[in-house]
């Protein structure tokens, strides 16, 4: 892929490129794997000294697919796509990435889609992943440079994901709140997590959208990204997610997976500098539970 930059001060090429999130690794890839650097149309190297208003053009080599990731044909619900990013609606029940327990994953399906489309960059770059039984929006970068630029936003907590969750418990759930409690791995499991003083700092915010007796639909957003954070935090305050038997959620209301859905995604497109904001409606199993709850209240 080709990108162009204009120098606003006298610096070396590599310094200008670093300011645009071109890492040392990517610069080495450009140098040794078929890329190129031009300054005002003339081939130059990374230590060339630029003048103000010099135009730097780089060609980033195409990315070959990871051999260990098997392409699998599967219909994708594509919400948005351009040359840099892909946003999907992930169904629940499908893992994001392969593991010893999961082989038919979103990553496998995306690799097949890239191959079918004949894209020049074939590596699958997941920016925001979801647990297997969480539904909703997933963001992919379609090349390594786009991934690197969004990684900086992730590190700065500048990518906002919001979730809907159905929670139920005894007592009163405040209309809005902050859950700040450290999360650690459970002593007797490599999968489950718990609130414990030995854990890592974790911060969750929420707002109640609608109440159905002792069940509430809440809008949730994260300030940290701990494993199972939303599920653990709401269980900790006595309002576990419906369908989440791992953390004490009710299983009698018609939903058999954790009632968690990523409904919105917001980030700054690093190439256009404009805000990208994507939303999506609830899934059928969410809607069915809410309809029943409304009928019974």
TrEMBL record:
It is an enzyme of class 5 (isomerase). It catalyses: a uridine in RNA = a pseudouridine in RNA. InterPro entries: PsdUridine_synth_cat_dom_sf, PsdUridine_synth_RluA-like_CS, PsdUridine_synth_RluC/D, PsdUridine_synth_RsuA/RluA, RluA_PseudoU_synthase. Keywords: Isomerase. The keyword Chloroplast does not apply. Residues 84-236 form the Pseudouridine synthase RsuA/RluA-like domain. It comes from the Bacteria. The keyword Isomerase applies. Its EC number is 5.4.99.-. Belongs to the pseudouridine synthase RluA family. Responsible for synthesis of pseudouridine from uracil. This is Pseudouridine synthase. The lineage of its organism: Bacteria, Bacillati, Bacillota, Bacilli, Lactobacillales.
């Amino acid at each position: 892929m080709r990108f162009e930059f204009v120098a606003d001060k006298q610096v070396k090429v590599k310094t200008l490129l670093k300011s645009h999130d071109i890492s040392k690794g990517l610069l080495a890839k450009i140098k040794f794997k078929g890329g190129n650097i031009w300054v005002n149309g003339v081939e130059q190297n990374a230590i060339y000294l630029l003048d103000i208003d010099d135009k730097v053009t780089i060609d980033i080599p195409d990315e070959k697919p990871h051999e260990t990731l098997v392409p699998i044909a599967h219909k994708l619900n594509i919400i948005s796509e351009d040359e840099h990013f892909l946003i999907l609606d992930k169904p629940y029940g499908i893992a994001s990435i392969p593991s010893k327990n999961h082989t038919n994953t979103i990553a496998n399906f995306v690799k097949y889609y890239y191959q079918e489309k004949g894209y020049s960059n074939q590596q699958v770059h997941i920016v925001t992943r979801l647990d297997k039984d969480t539904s909703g929006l997933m963001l992919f970068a379609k090349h390594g440079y786009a991934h690197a630029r969004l990684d900086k936003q992730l590190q700065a907590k500048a990518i906002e994901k919001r979730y809907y969750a159905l929670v139920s418990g005894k007592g009163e759930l405040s209309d809005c709140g902050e859950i700040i409690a450290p999360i650690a791995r459970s002593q007797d499991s490599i999968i489950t997590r718990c609130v414990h003083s030995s854990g890592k700092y974790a911060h969750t915010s929420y707002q109640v959208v609608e109440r159905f007796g002792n069940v509430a639909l809440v809008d949730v957003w994260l300030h940290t990204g701990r494993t199972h954070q939303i599920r653990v935090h709401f269980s900790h305050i006595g309002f576990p997610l419906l369908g989440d038997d791992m953390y004490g959620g009710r299983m009698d209301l018609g939903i058999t997976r954790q009632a968690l859905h990523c409904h919105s995604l917001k980030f700054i497109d690093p190439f256009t500098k404009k805000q990208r904001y994507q939303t999506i409606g609830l899934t059928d199993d969410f809607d069915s539970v809410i309809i029943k709850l409304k009928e019974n209240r």
